[in-house]
Amino acid sequence: MSPNKTAGSHPESTQPRTINAEGIKRDIIVIGASAGGVVTLMELFAAFPPTLPAVVGVVLHRSVERGQLAHVLGRRSALSLIEPDRKTVLQRGYIYLAPPDHHLLFKAAGVVIQRGPKEHSTRPAIDPLFRSAAASYGKRVVGVLLTGAGEDGVSGLIAISKASGVTLIQDPEEAYMPHMPLNALKMDDVNGVFQIKEMAPTLAALAAGERVILGTKKQR
Question: pTM of the prediction?
C-alpha cells in the first residue's frame, strides 16, 4: 500500500483522515479474536506479504487442548507461525500464537508465556497481550481486534491508544460475531475500521512507517 492510498474508514468521521501521520514504523502487531476467528485469521495471514517487517502476536480464545490450531492457522501463511512454550526472543517475520491455557505477553526481553489468572473467563485472553505490548513498545504497537463476543481486548486497545499506538478493528458488519469490535467502538476512539481484505495491506504499510489515508464511508 502506498503512503497516500485510501483504505478503511474512521467510525466517527465522513472526511478523510490519516493513520500514522507521523510516519512511525509500527512494527509490533498484536491481534485478538474469538468466535469465528479461525477462518478470519487464516484469511488475514494468507494475505500477509512474506517480507512483512513486523512481529505479530495473536490470541485466539481456545480450549485447553493443544490440538492442531497452529498448523491450521499457519497453513496458508507466508510467515512462520509458532506456538511458543517458553520465553523466546521476538523476531520479525514471525507470528506468535498464544498456547492453550496460557497468556501470551510481549515484553522488552521477548515473548513471555504466563499461566496467570483468567481474564474475561478465558486463558489465553487478549487484554494481557495488548497491555504488555503497549507497556513495552508504546507507539510501535498496532492493536487489532477481530470477530468475537464480549469485551476482551477492549481495555487492551485503550492501553495501546494511551501509549500512542494505533488501534484497528474488523468491520462489525463483516465479522462473524460483531460484539468485540462493536464494544471497542463504544469504549475507545479506534483509529480505523477495516474489512479483512483491507487489513493485511494496511498493517504492512504501518509496519513500514507509511501513512494510511482512511476512506469517507461513515461507520457505526
Answer: 0.91
Contact 118, 64 (CB under 8 A): no
Q: Which of 9, 10, 27, 61 is catalytic?
A: 61
Query: Is 188 part of the annotated catalytic residue set?
Result: no
> How far apart are alpha carbons 131 and 138 in whole angstroms?
10
List the pLDDT tens digit at each of the 220 positions of the chain. Answer: 444 444 566 555 455 789 999 999 999 999 999 999 999 999 999 999 999 999 999 999 999 988 899 999 999 999 999 999 888 999 999 999 999 999 999 999 899 999 999 999 999 999 999 999 999 999 999 999 999 999 999 999 999 999 999 999 999 999 999 999 999 999 978 999 999 999 999 999 999 999 999 874 333 2
Q: List the catalytic residue out of 9, 34, 77, 132.
A: 34
User: What topology is assigned to 6-214 in CATH?
Assistant: Rossmann fold (3.40.50)
Q: Is 34 a catalytic residue?
A: yes
176 burial level (CB within 10 Å; 0-12, 13-18, 19+): middle
61 is catalytic: yes
Domain boundaries, the chain: 6-214
Please tell me which residue in 152, 155, 161, 171 is annotated as part of the active site: 152
